[in-house]
Design brief:
Keywords: Repeat, Riboflavin biosynthesis, Transferase. InterPro entries: ATP_synth_asu-like_sf, Lumazine-bd, Lumazine-bd_dom, Riboflavin_synthase-like_b-brl. Catalyzes the dismutation of two molecules of 6,7-dimethyl-8-ribityllumazine, resulting in the formation of riboflavin and 5-amino-6-(D-ribitylamino)uracil. This protein has four helices and twelve strands. By secondary structure, it is of the alpha+beta class. The chain has two domains: 8-85, Elongation Factor Tu (Ef-tu), domain 3 (Beta Barrel), CATH 2.40.30; 104-200, Elongation Factor Tu (Ef-tu), domain 3, CATH 2.40.30.20. It has a six-stranded antiparallel barrel with strand order 1-2-5-4-3-6.
């Protein structure tokens, strides 16, 4: 579990590609202070497992499913990435519930400075339209953000100066791909409503005429 509060920006040092899978070595400092083998680290919002590490580097594997469903395949040597350690049980919760399981990718459609903020329009997958709402939460490349505008094709988020400086979103340009994770609570609510609707539909078919037609009455 993560919070979407990026701890530092790391740098991709080495990528080994093997078909539709990757092994990445990333340079970092802060997140390696207490790292252990098998720890979970969010890389651009994607939950990955530490397979080896040193005082300044750690290595993770990217399996084919993650390769195809996230933007990690587009990373290169020298790419900057958002990094966050998994939330400790006694840690401060500062963002929103983030699982590190990416729902899809989007593309930056607009980026505009407005006084001390940067407004960004990001396309969203059609399957995610039910999970976004104005003033709701969304994870973009692992950064917890609030949606200030929503329509059928994109969401609008705003970066304060701190977020622009401390995450890679401030470096992104129009046309760049980003990882998207929709709010976990919104997904559970939508699933519960869909299940309730499905159950109601099934119950509505259980009429006296239906029972007679099928020999039960």
């Amino acid at each position: 579990m993560f919070t979407g509060i990026v701890e530092e920006i790391g740098t991709v040092q080495k990528i080994i590609k093997n078909g539709n899978s990757l092994q990445m070595t990333i340079q970092a400092m802060k997140i390696l202070e207490d790292v252990k083998l098998g720890d979970s680290i969010a890389v651009n919002g994607v939950c990955l497992t530490v397979t080896s590490f040193s005082s300044q580097l750690f290595t993770v594997d990217v399996m084919p499913e993650t390769f195809h469903s996230t933007s990690l395949a587009s990373l290169k040597n020298g790419s900057f990435v958002n990094l966050e350690r998994a939330l400790a049980a006694n840690g401060r919760f500062g963002g929103h519930f983030v699982t590190g399981h990416i729902d899809g990718t989007g593309v930056i459609l607009r980026k505009e400075a407005k006084e001390n903020a940067i407004y960004i329009d990001i396309s969203i997958p059609e399957t995610g339209q039910a999970y976004v709402m104005e003033k709701g939460s969304i994870g973009i490349d692992g950064t917890s953000l609030t949606t200030f505008g929503v329509n059928d094709e994109f969401v609008t988020v705003s970066l304060i100066p701190h977020t622009a400086n401390e995450t890679i979103l401030g470096m992104k340009n129009i046309g760049d791909k980003v990882n998207i994770e929709f709010d976990m609570l919104a997904k559970y609510v939508q699933l519960a409503l869909a299940k309730k609707t499905e159950d109601s539909t099934h119950k509505s078919k259980m009429t006296v005429d239906f029972l007679k037609e099928n020999g039960f009455a």
